[in-house]
Specification:
Helix content: 55-70%
Number of strands: 0
Largest sheet: none
Distance between the termini: 44 Å
Length: 191
């Protein structure tokens, strides 16, 4: 092929290269290759119509993603007050740890960062070891354990004995792992 013909091809758009019957009547970007033709109405009527149901697992995957996102945004909202303000302080917002704004903002940002970093680990575990569905199940259990840790360390007895802050940090790490395992595998399947 000469350099003139290469230059000519590179300057022409696909629409100029394929004209007439080669272009799809409704989609100008679509064209025929060699030995192809467009499907006619008769061709379409002769095709088998195969209706299929959505697998049950798909509903559980969507439900898992819904519950994970609902829980994630449900717990991240109160973190600022929970960390910043003290427990049962008169004339104050509700809270538990009394760590101030710096600690509250720092831990909140760490949690967000951790939850966006861990999907890398979740993807590797799914691709190399467990597969998508098993990874979703395992990390859903991890997520539930993290929520259980958060709940048990935020009860009044735990707050009075100083378990609120360490429990929160451990819960954030465990929930972050759960988020990573779920998010990295559910989003590609549901999207």
């Amino acid at each position: 092929m000469s350099s003139k013909s290469v230059d000519k091809v590179s300057q022409e758009s696909p629409l100029e290269l394929y004209k007439g019957d080669e272009l799809h009547p409704e989609h100008n970007d679509d064209y025929l290759r060699e030995n192809e033709r467009w499907a006619t109405e008769e061709d379409m009527s002769l095709l088998r119509h195969v209706g299929d149901r959505l697998p049950t697992a798909a509903f559980f995957v969507v439900l898992t993603e819904f519950c994970e996102r609902f829980t994630f945004y449900g717990i991240t909202g109160p973190f600022q007050n929970y960390i910043q303000n003290g427990y049962q302080v008169p004339n104050s917002n509700p809270g538990a740890i009394d760590g101030g704004q710096h600690l509250a903002t720092g831990l909140g940002n760490f949690f967000q960062f951790w939850c966006y970093l861990t999907p890398i680990f979740g993807a590797v575990i799914a691709d190399q070891y467990l597969g998508k569905f098993k990874t979703i199940v395992v990390f859903t259990v991890v997520y539930i354990i993290g929520n259980l840790i958060l709940t048990l360390t935020s009860i009044p007895a735990s707050i009075h004995h100083g378990g609120a802050l360490p429990g929160l940090v451990v819960a954030m790490i465990v929930i972050g792992f759960g988020t990573g395992g779920i998010k990295s595998n559910v989003s590609p399947m549901v999207a």
